[in-house]
Each structure stands twice: as C-alpha cells, then as structure tokens.
Design goal:
Length: about 290
C-alpha cells in the first residue's frame, strides 16, 4: 500500500493517477475540508481515502497503518487554509509524518524537496530538516529535488501570462534554468518506488533543456506570434524584499525568486540512468498547451 501525502495537490494528484493506471494500491491522506471534486477524482482512480491532517499527529499514525511506502509532496505554499503555515505543515508536519512512518515500520519514504539554495529562508530550513530526519531514520529513502516547476513559474500566477502576452522576469533573465513539469516530477517519484539504485539517495531533477527566462519569452512569442511586454523585477529589489520580509512565507518566496534570478541548471545524465523516465516535457510543449487553452 502506498500512502500519498499531498494527494489533492498538483504532484500528489498526478502520482495518484499514475499509480492508479498501474493498478497499484494507493491511499490518499485528505482533509475533511478538502474539495469534494478533488476527493471524487481520487476515488474515481480507485484510491482509498483516509482523512487526516499533517497538523494532527494521531491522524498520521492511523493513515500509516498497513502502508509499505509513503510519498510526501505536501506543502503550505499554495494553501490559503487557516492554520496552514510553513512551521505547522512544511516543518513540523513533515517531521511528524516521517516519525509516524518510522513508528509504523514503513519500509520506504519518498520526499519531494528542492535543490539547496545558497541563502537561508524558512521553507528551505523546513525541507532540509525533513531531509536530515529521513537520512537518520532506518527507512529506505529517496529525496527528489526538482528545480522550478514550469506550470508554476511560467504561469499567470507569477506574471508569465501567455494569453495576455506579458511576462514578469525576476532578475536580468539571462541565467538558465532547467525547468521541469510537475507531471515529470510525479513520474520520477513513481519510478523511484521500485528502483533499487535510487535507495538512500538525493536526486536533483530538471527538465530536458536549460533555458533562460528570456529564452522562454522568445519561445512564447514564437508560439503565439506576438511580441510580449516584459517586466523585470531587479535583483536589488528582490534582495531588499528578502531582507525586509518578516513573514516566513514572504521571505521564502523572496528567497526562491533570488534563486530563480541566479539560475538553476541540472545535469540529468546520471539521474536518467538511475530513473530512466523519458520523454520529459519541454518548455515549448508546455507553452503550446497553455496557448491552446
């Protein structure tokens, strides 16, 4: 039995879909307040639903009974629910699900994180804390560290709006990033379930091609055959935002934007040897799909 924590999110939901296609036994941890549509979608995939919350340790113990593998994708970064914070979900909640899995005798734990960043911020501290606890446990672990999600960072939510031909760029936009689709992150997580050479490893994930944000803009312009209006947020402004931020989420987003400005390229040669997931979705494919919607 595979327990998916964060099953109503982008990556977690896609993992449930992929496992359902393979007729694997899947249990999804969902909250009583989760969207009925999301829960119905999971049930339609043949997923067993268990109610619980990363902020409720007893519910995690119940969810882990009879489970052999946990895949945790949960984060509060896209949540507006009261009580969901980096401290309660990304830090303590992840520590608690790891501890609950260990107490239940679970054999394997797959954790979705992100690559190390050279500046500190609360989200990174939470991820590294969970990673360290996993490494100290007796469980077999795989820590996946994907770089920037195409569907998030090249989306209207963060200023990259292909429908309105506008793009917000953090920094100069010249440094390359190995953008990755959340769908491919899910494929890597599923592949890691039975990959013996991925045991007790930390694996960085990127897409098939490293492109600068400005190269992404040019691809988008080619896709819609229109010129984009580009807004640059200077790195100095991002650093001032980072230094001034007192809210943990704001400081974390400022840190991630600085990370974006500096670029993040991932050599996938060894990763694809360990986890032969192919083909990987390109930025061009994402932009074409976004333009068609």
């Amino acid at each position: 039995m595979n327990l998916i924590v964060g099953a109503t999110g982008m990556v977690g939901g896609e993992i449930c879909r992929l496992l359902g296609e393979r007729r694997k036994r899947v249990r999804a941890l969902v909250r009583e307040t989760s969207s009925p549509e999301s829960v119905a979608r999971l049930k339609g995939l043949g997923v067993e639903i268990v109610h619980g919350d990363l902020k409720d340790r007893a519910s995690l113990d119940r969810a882990c009974r009879g489970v052999t593998t946990v895949i945790s994708t949960a984060t509060s970064t896209r949540s507006a629910r009261e009580g969901d914070t980096l401290a309660s979900v990304d830090h303590q909640g992840q520590l608690d699900i790891i501890d609950a899995a260990k107490a239940a005798g679970i054999e394997r734990f797959i954790f979705i994180s992100f690559p190390p960043v050279d500046i500190g911020f609360p989200l990174q501290s939470a991820k590294r804390g969970a990673e360290e606890l996993l490494k100290q446990s007796w469980m077999t672990y795989t820590i996946l560290q994907p770089t920037f999600f195409t569907e998030v960072w090249l989306s209207p939510a963060l200023g990259f709006d292909i429908a309105n031909e506008t793009a917000r760029i953090y920094g100069e936009g010249e440094n390359k990033i190995s953008w990755i689709s959340f769908q491919d992150v899910a494929k890597f997580a599923v592949s890691a379930l039975n990959a013996s050479n991925a045991k007790n490893t930390v694996i960085k994930l990127g897409g098939p091609q490293a492109l600068s944000p400005l190269e992404c803009v040019r691809l988008a312009e080619q896709t819609v055959r229109k010129q984009f209006t580009v807004e640059h947020v200077p790195e100095e402004a991002l650093r001032a935002q980072y230094e001034a931020a007192t809210d943990p989420m704001q400081k974390s987003f400022a840190g991630l934007m600085l990370f974006y400005a500096g670029g993040s390229t991932i050599d996938m040669t060894e990763t694809l040897r360990l986890l032969p997931v192919q083909p990987l979705k390109t930025v061009r494919e994402y932009l074409q799909a976004a333009a068609a919607n």
